[in-house]
Amino acid sequence: MAVILDGKALANKMQEDLANEVTEWKNKGYRIPTLVVILIGEDSASKVYVKNKEKSAQKIGFNSIVRRLDDSIKEEELLLIIESYNQDDSVDGILVQLPLPKHIDEEKVLLAIDPRKDVDGFHPLNVGKLFVGDPDMHPCTPYGIITLLKEHQIDLVGKKVVIIGRSNIVGKPLMHMMLNEDATVTIAHSKTKNLKDETLTADVLVAAIGQAEFITSDYVKEGAVVVDVGMNRNSEGKLVGDVDYQDVLPKVSAITPVPGGVGPMTITMLMEQTMNQGRKHCGE
Ligand SMILES: Nc1nc(=O)c2c([nH]1)NC[C@@H]1CN(c3ccc(C(=O)N[C@@H](CCC(=O)O)C(=O)O)cc3)C=[N+]21
Ligand SMILES: [Mg+2]
């Protein structure tokens, strides 16, 4: 029987712990950690994710600020807003929800966020620290995946990990985190030849493809651990992952569901890093 890697359950547990930490923190007379989430435009998926972040932040007891901006906003105006939060000593974490409108340069925006407030781990300084094996802030989705695997005592040392997807927010940072855990890592992507030959070698298969139920049992080695990063709406409007869950289930030793797997863990790691930065910014 496959182990279901229940991200929702671990997220709830970790967020309860964080809520207790915030209470203690307040009782010691410190100001509560503050997270600013900047959301530009009306993308419906982004709105759902930001809403979930706001709900979690409020439940934990953080000071949660969601700054909603029109998608006509000029790049320089956005950069000034970010700078004002950089300068504001009461702000511990700043996240700019991606993707950005086309006329705004993502690289410039991520570079503008104070690395000490970059709870998303996307600033080039934090990316570089992860690259050299001395991470400070981690991108939340890969960090959530590692945390969930560790919670279930899934050993990564020497294991063959195959990640499908080479994005800056999932595939590439996860590669570094897996290397830091002493795994052997392969990244496959849309141009990979004979994808199945790669995936069938995986002890741990991570799907971050962006295609509904792409991974069927013929892509999966018997007894593999499967991590599904996908968030797709199928033809019936139902949220499904990149993995055909029912099809691969009999074959795997462990699997993350969608919803309730990687998504809630992503949000929890954001909260965790906000708490950590809040502590640091208060000198603890
Ligand atoms: N600067 C930035 N940081 C991010 O961390 C970031 C981002 N931009 N852009 C988009 C991706 C995606 N992401 C998710 C967060 C929560 C869920 C989540 O809560 N998922 C729920 C279901 C959500 C639903 O019902 O649609 C679940 O899997 O159970 C999913 C995806 C954060 N991202
Ligand atoms: Mg993230």
Describe this entry's structure for a reader.
- The chain has 284 residues and is α/β, with parallel strands linked by helices.
- It folds into two domains: 29-116, 3-Layer(aba) Sandwich (Rossmann fold); 140-263, Rossmann fold, CATH 3.40.50.
- Helix content is 41%, strand content 15%.
- The chain contains ten helices and eleven strands.
- It has helices at 7-27, 44-60, 75-87, 106-112, 124-131, 140-151, 171-180, 195-199, 245-248, 262-281; strands spanning 3-4, 34-40, 63-69, 93-96, 160-164, 184-188, 204-207, 225-228, 232-233, 239-240, 254-255.
- The strands form three sheets. The protein has a six-stranded parallel beta sheet with strand order 1-11-8-7-5-6. It has a three-stranded parallel beta sheet with strand order 3-2-4, with helices on both faces. It has a two-stranded antiparallel ribbon with strand order 9-10.
- Helix 7 (171-180) links the parallel strand 5 and strand 6.
- Helix 1 runs parallel beside helix 10 (262-281), helix 2 packs across helix 10 and helix 6 packs across helix 10.
- The model has no long low-confidence stretch (mean pLDDT 97).
